[in-house]
Design goal:
Blueprint: E1 4-9, E2 13-19, E3 25-32, H1 39-61, E4 68-72, E5 75-77, E6 82-86, E7 91-94, H2 96-103, E8 109-113, H3 114-125, E9 133-138, E10 146-149, E11 152-154, H4 185-188, H5 190-201, H6 208-216, H7 220-244, E12 248-252, H8 260-273, E13 281-284, H9 291-303
Parallel strand pairs: 1-4, 4-8, 9-12, 12-13
Antiparallel strand pairs: 1-2, 2-3, 5-6, 6-7, 9-10, 10-11
Length: 318
């Protein structure tokens, strides 16, 4: 069976898969990045992991992988295949595409930003399937975004497209590490909600999931913290939909795991803010933590000019 190698590299762990031409994950594996051993060791671990997958695929399917895709965090130069900067991994200007291609026998390799890669999968085979334009916004430690147009995700002229977390929603507000004040992710990310709830309830170990549970139980303090985050998120999303006019707005990440505790007030808050804009369908992400591998696989198939944009969310075997 023709197959590709898909890698999703995070700050602490790596997910990998062999993906078939319909987007199905034929095999999955995970391991730590080993970042405590330094940036060069992380790169070596990625190359070794990919080589193991290549050998496994050749043994199981009777032929080598025809391409590979890899999603990584940080600043990515997709055109030149370089991981320009990733603070969590200690990377600067790593020619990852070339290194992987060499290790994998010269096959074509696609390198993509982790959020845009996950957004590609959500747009094609997940919650945005069938939509010509979508915006994918994962709410995690920070907030990023992926702008989907015609089955592809826009990187921008310099690789920064979709960084909705740094839209200013509270001018002169909380300082952000980016250098601005009042950025969206300082108010509506999972980490921001965790911090606000820990301060409100007096428990330094409390997190966003605990806040959501407290909201569901009727806690007034939690309700205030939650509504503040929802209002900030709605402000940022309305700015985005005014600029981009997406047909579908996909919300993922840890905060979205709260389900309708998030989505019901968020839909209401967005609806109250729109005037002339067309209200998009606002839906939860569908692919969970498989989105990165699925997207990396789709990028790999795209290199061969045979993307399958009609695939249904695939079943996974290991």
């Amino acid at each position: 069976m023709r197959h590709v190698i898909a890698l999703d590299v995070g700050g602490t762990g790596m997910k990998a898969a062999l993906a078939g031409p319909g987007g199905e994950l034929l095999h999955q594996a995970r391991r730590a990045t080993g970042r405590e051993r330094g940036p060069e060791a992380v790169v070596a671990g990625i190359l070794d992991f990919a080589a193991e997958l290549r050998a496994l695929g050749a043994d199981r399917f009777g032929g080598d992988a025809v391409a590979a895709g890899v999603a990584v965090p940080g600043i990515i130069d997709e055109e030149h295949g370089t991981a320009v900067y990733a603070a969590n991994l200690g990377w600067r200007d790593v020619p990852l595409r070339a290194l992987l291609s060499e290790r994998l026998g010269g096959i074509p390799v696609a390198l993509g930003h982790d959020v845009r890669t996950g957004g590609l999968a959500e747009g094609r085979v997940g919650a945005g399937r069938g939509a010509d334009r979508f915006l994918f916004v994962p709410l995690g430690t920070g907030i990023a975004g992926a702008i989907g147009i015609g089955g592809r995700v826009e990187a921008g002229a310099h690789g920064f497209a979709g960084e909705i977390g740094h839209v200013v929603v509270r001018p002169a507000g909380t300082p952000c590490p980016c250098g601005q004040r009042g950025c969206l992710e300082r108010y509506a990310s999972a980490s921001a909600v965790s911090q606000a709830w820990a301060e409100a309830c007096g428990d330094p170990q409390a997190d966003a999931a605990d806040c959501a549970k407290a909201v569901e139980s009727g806690d007034a303090r939690a309700a205030r913290v939650w509504q503040d985050a929802v209002d900030a998120l709605a402000d940022g999303l309305v700015t985005a939909l005014t600029l981009l006019d997406p047909r579908v707005l996909i919300i993922g990440g840890g905060l979205a795991e709260a389900g309708e505790t998030l989505f019901t007030p968020l839909r209401d808050a967005v609806r109250r803010r729109v005037t002339f804009q067309k209200l998009p369908e606002l839906v939860p992400a569908a692919l969970g933590d498989t989105a990165g591998c699925l997207g990396a696989g789709l990028m790999a198939w795209d290199l061969l000019d045979i993307p399958d944009t009609t695939a249904t969310p695939p079943e996974v075997t290991t």
